[in-house]
Amino acid sequence: MHDIRWIRENPEAFDNGLKLRGEAPRSSGLIALDDKRRAHVASLQEIQERRNAASKEIGKAKASGDEDRARAMIAEVATLKSDLQAGEEQERALNAELETALAAIPNIPLDDVPGGADEADNVVLRVEGGLPNFAFAPKEHFELGEGLELMDFEVAAKLSGSRFVVLRGHLARLERALAQFMLDTHTDKHGYTEVSPPLMVRDEVMYGTGQLPKFADDQFHTDDGRWLIPTAEVPLTNLVRETTLSEADLPIRVTAGTYCFRLEAGAAGRDTRGMLRQHQFYKVELVSITHPDKSLDELERMRDCAETILKQLGLSYRVMTLCSGDMGFGARKTYDLEVWLPGQNAYREISSCSVCGDFQARRMNARFRPAEGKGLNFVHTLNGSGIAVGRALIAVMENYQNADGSITIPEVLRPYMGGMDRLPATGGAGQ
After folding, report:
1. Active-site residue, from 173, 351, 391, 398
2. Residue 268: pLDDT band by 50, 70, 90 thresholds?
3. Which of these is catalytic: 57, 175, 338, 349?
4. Of 316, 324, 352, 354, which residue is the catalytic one?
5. Quick check: 428 pLDDT over 50?
6. Which of 200, 206, 218, 215 is nearest to 277 (CA)?
7. Which of 241, 277, 363, 367 is flagged as catalytic?
């Protein structure tokens, strides 16, 4: 949510930021709405002042014995009261109109975000790790998983339709091992507090992080009015909604491993095979609530935390700075981590870390009281994948595959796999 006062003071900067997003200028329309709202509020103040004055005149008229004037003033006060009630209802409507308009506008990119229209304009910040060499043609994850008889898309389709998967045996355990390894790393080494949040939330919670109203069609909705979370960012960030923190409470760092649900699983016809784009997927999420002066440093820290997971898994990846046209709705700056998938011979996103400034905090009314000075300030929020578990499973399978179809287990995961060092080539549901 944008601050209309900032827009009034910086209309050109606001419109330039929207232009970088591929959006039309909005400042003049928003300011016109705010002018209308302000004029109405001023008229209500005048009515209230006249009502107060008329009420005093009733007493004076009665004290002087002027009953006719007293009756006239009583009638005027009654009319003014009715006008105020109608005016207050109109004020609420004008406030809602302005808020609805502001709620549909994406966040403004930071000055150092590269301009661009889509993912083709993203900038490679750096590349980490050399690409693996294979003495054979590497397979994609779904070929490996089906060869092991531990990844089943046909049964999943019978159960739930397309873009779902059933994992069995050691492969199901490997997915669980990845999630536990990530959570242990972020809590034990990176200082995040683990949270187990609800997977269904109310309208106002989805609104707080920006999924509603703009992206309602991309979400799963229940019959009783709740939403399945598209990411744990939603409940984790909203832990501070409608809360006033002290400056000493900041930063707050939380993490969760949850299933996530997205009705829109990607562009039509893209990644239809395998488990790269699914309606249900597992992800470890990182969320930080910070002081405004510390949020940019926190973004670098969060990205480093996500990178640590990829480094410990021994995976090659690159760090991307997203261009203005490819960032998410609520982000001011975003880093993507793209892991190398030899089966696809391509880098694919596995983590996205974003700073949102006070954009979400305004929607949630999440504030803090400064240690010095008066008043309340909005917190800054950040979110990131720490990392996508399903895609990590894909990356491990493809990068650690062997010629016979078996998969070597990365050393850091072996304690979570009962000491196993390899998924054998001969699978089966009982493995």
Report:
1. 391
2. low
3. 349
4. 352
5. no
6. 218
7. 277
262 is catalytic: yes
What's the CA angle centered on 187, arms 184 and 192, to 5 degrees? 150
Known catalytic residue at 422? no
* CATH no., domain 119-423: 3.30.930.10
Q: Give the count of alpha carbons within 13 A of 348, CB side only.
A: 20
Residue ranges of the domains in the chain? 4-103, 119-423
Identify which has the larger pLDDT, 358 or 61: 358
Tell me whether residue 385 is one of the annotated catalytic residues.
Answer: no
pTM: 0.92
- Residue among 26, 262, 303, 367 flagged as catalytic: 262
CATH of domain 4-103: 1.10.287.40
CA 413/CA 421 separation, integer angstroms = 9
Say what the pLDDT of residue 271 is: 64
pLDDT tens, position by position, 187-198: 999 999 999 999
Q: What is the pLDDT of residue 76?
A: 87
Q: Contact at 8 Å (CB) between 183 and 257?
A: yes
Is residue 233 part of the annotated active site? The answer reads no
Q: Tell me if residue 391 is catalytic.
A: yes
